[in-house]
Design goal:
Oligomer: single chain
Number of strands: 13
Strand content: over 45%
Number of helices: 1
CATH superfamily: Jelly Rolls
Mean pLDDT: 77
Low-confidence stretches: 1-28
Distance between the termini: 49 Å
CATH architecture: Sandwich
Radius of gyration: 19 Å
Shape: globular
Length: 190
């Protein structure tokens, strides 16, 4: 299937766009696989809720509008980002109503605070560790003090841009470090 190819779906016609790296606007014209490496630094990253974020890949499908004079609807099917967590500023303690997040630690060490109702956990994070967070699971990432932890995060469905009404991030506490001190004073972050 090539980029820009029209595809017949049961609900109508759609135009499929291949994987997109929003940082370079690279869109392969032939629909071929995109080879990419994890970014090695955060030079082009922007500050987000969970750290300094740089999107790597997005895939999108543009569905024809039901009415001929309406704009087509673009659905982002997946997104992958690299996030650098350095506790400056600390990430918030938050959850997503309908989005699954999959964290994989690439470099550095830290913790993921996960609160699933009666069960709260401090999950140690080292390179190679992966954690999948279903929708509704409250969480926040913490780097070891004085270090930077780089994490690849897969979002499904993808996280919407700031200001987009589909963004479903709910902040429970604006500072994960303060949240831990207030609610779990016996936990030691080293």
């Amino acid at each position: 299937m090539s980029t820009g190819q029209r595809v017949q779906y049961a609900s109508g016609m759609a135009t499929v766009h291949s994987y997109v790296n929003p940082n370079t606007d690279f869109r392969p014209s032939d629909g071929s696989a995109v080879v990419w490496g994890l970014p090695l630094n955060m030079n082009k990253a922007h500050q987000s809720e969970c750290g300094k974020k740089l999107f790597i890949v997005r895939a999108e499908v543009e569905f024809d509008a039901k009415e001929s004079d309406d704009e087509p609807e673009v659905i982002y099917c997946t997104s992958v980002a690299m996030v650098w967590v350095d506790n400056d500023p600390p990430s918030p303690f938050h959850f997503h109503q309908s989005m699954l997040e999959h964290y994989t630690v690439v470099e550095g060490e830290g913790y993921l605070v996960v609160d699933e109702g009666p069960l709260a956990r401090l999950i140690p994070l080292i390179p190679g560790v992966s954690v999948t967070l279903p929708p509704g699971v409250k969480h926040g990432a913490i780097a070891r003090p004085g270090t930077v932890m780089s994490v690849r995060i897969d979002f499904n469905p993808p996280i919407a841009d700031r200001g987009d009404p589909r963004r479903d991030e709910i902040i429970e506490h604006p500072n994960i470090l303060e949240y831990v001190r207030e609610t779990h004073p016996t936990w030691v972050i080293v």
